[in-house]
Amino acid sequence: MTRFFSFHFLFPFVIVALVVLHIFFLHETGSRNPLGVNRDREKVRFHSYYSVKDLFGFVFTLFLFFILVFVSPFLLGDPENFIPANPLVTPIHIQPEWYFLFAYAILRSIPNKLGGVVGLVISLLILFILPLTRCGNLRREAFYPVRQLMF
After folding, report:
1. Average pLDDT for 44-49
2. Domain range for residue 4?
3. Which member of 31, 72, 109, 123 is catalytic?
4. Cβ neighbours of residue 142 under 8 Å, at least 6 residues apart?
5. Is 53 a catalytic site residue?
6. Distance from C-alpha of 36 to C-alpha of 46, rounded to nearest angstrom
7. Do 40 and 67 have their domain in common?
8. Catalytic residue among 28, 93, 97, 113
9. Cα-flanking dihedrals φ and ψ of residue 75, to 5°?
10. Residue from 53, 72, 109, 123 carrying the catalytic annotation
11. With contact defined as beta carbons under 8 Å apart, do 123 and 102 qualify?
12. What's the CA gap between 117 and 110, in Å, rounded?
């Protein structure tokens, strides 16, 4: 329990440190243009434009969060949470959260337990292998007239 708490306590600080490091390196080298054009006169300055835009987005998101928390805190809650629990009966409506539904579907579709676990591991390995299958440099549609015409 202590490791779980310390991870969830320290992880936001690690994320903030990485954000600060990212902004530092962005100021040092500048951002790249996806077209490969590297002219200084076409670049947009970071501080006056992106800082104000990001600050506005942060304040707007914080405003929506405060409205959600203080005006209607149970809006995103599940009505099943307000039913008193019966320790003698397992509820019928139990299902995994949305981010575990793919694993639940794989394990339910394969009748063999070991086969289900192997299928689940393979489905996760595909996500790690997929970035290695990239063929060549991908560019915008403007560089491929035939693909642009087909689109």
Report:
1. 73
2. 1-85
3. 31
4. 148
5. yes
6. 19
7. yes
8. 97
9. -65, -40
10. 53
11. yes
12. 9
Instruction: Name residue 114's amino acid.
Output: L
Token pair recorded at residue 35: 């077209």
What is the count of structural domains for the chain?
Answer: 2
Of 22, 51, 54, 109, which is the active-site residue?
A: 54
54 is an active site residue: yes
97 is catalytic: yes
Residue 5 lies in a domain: yes
Same domain for 81 and 136: no
Q: How many residues in total does the chain contain? A: 151
| Per-residue model confidence as pLDDT tens digits over 58-73 | 999 999 999 999 999 9
Under the phi-then-psi rule, with left for phi > 0, alpha for psi from -120 to 50, and beta for the rest, what region is 136? left
Average pLDDT over residues 7-36: 82
31 as an active site residue: the answer is yes
For residues 91-110, give the mean pLDDT.
85
How far apart CA 48 and CA 66 sit, in angstroms, is 27
Q: For residue 3, what are its two tokens? A: 């490791």
108 CB contacts (<8 Å, ≥6 apart)?
116
User: In this structure, what DSSP letter does residue 74 have?
Assistant: T
